[in-house]
Specification:
Blueprint lengths: L1 H6 L3 H13 L5 H30 L7 H17 L2 H9 L1 H4 L2 H14 L5 H8 L4 H27 L1
Length: 159
């Protein structure tokens, strides 16, 4: 497919394409995957420590500790983003910081910080969920679809 597109290009564009491909910096994909894996794993490790802390000191159970742990991780991410620390971690780890729930907190607070000069209502409030809104929407929608499918299969299985 790429060869067909390349043949349709004028000679000068083809020369530029070959010039560009020779000088293109190769990405260290394996190294980036390792960094993302270990940083994402470390974030999950911190989440496990927070869960253990809540279970031990506040008498939560394993079933009830999830919500306060998630809220704490999001709060810590927002705090680190506000101080500019989380962005540096994100530059280093890439998807390792975006995939866990901390990526949600970073997306929310980054949009709020970016638009704070426009005021609290129209700037911060209006733009806070600009990036995270689609994640929330499709997360809720997909949860609804999965619950609907599960309910249908339970009804058919019960007959």
């Amino acid at each position: 497919m790429a060869d067909k597109k390349k043949k349709n290009l004028p000679p000068s564009a083809q020369q530029y394409q070959s010039f560009q491909s020779k000088r293109e910096v190769k990405r260290p994909v394996f190294k980036n995957c390792l960094k993302a894996f270990f940083v994402g794993g470390f974030i999950c490790f911190i989440g496990q420590l927070i869960s253990t802390f809540y279970i031990y000191f506040f008498n939560f159970t394993e079933q009830t500790v999830g919500n306060p742990t998630t809220a704490t991780l999001i709060f810590l991410t927002m705090l680190l983003t506000g101080f500019g620390i989380y962005d540096r971690i994100g530059q280093f780890a890439g998807a390792g910081t975006a995939v866990p729930v901390t990526g949600f907190g970073n997306a929310v607070i980054s949009a709020a910080i970016e638009h704070r000069t426009e005021g609290f209502v129209l700037g911060v409030g209006g733009n806070m969920f600009k990036l995270a809104g689609s994640v929330i929407l499709f997360g809720v929608f997909s949860a609804f679809i999965v619950a609907l499918i599960k309910t249908i299969f339970i009804q058919w299985g019960g007959m």
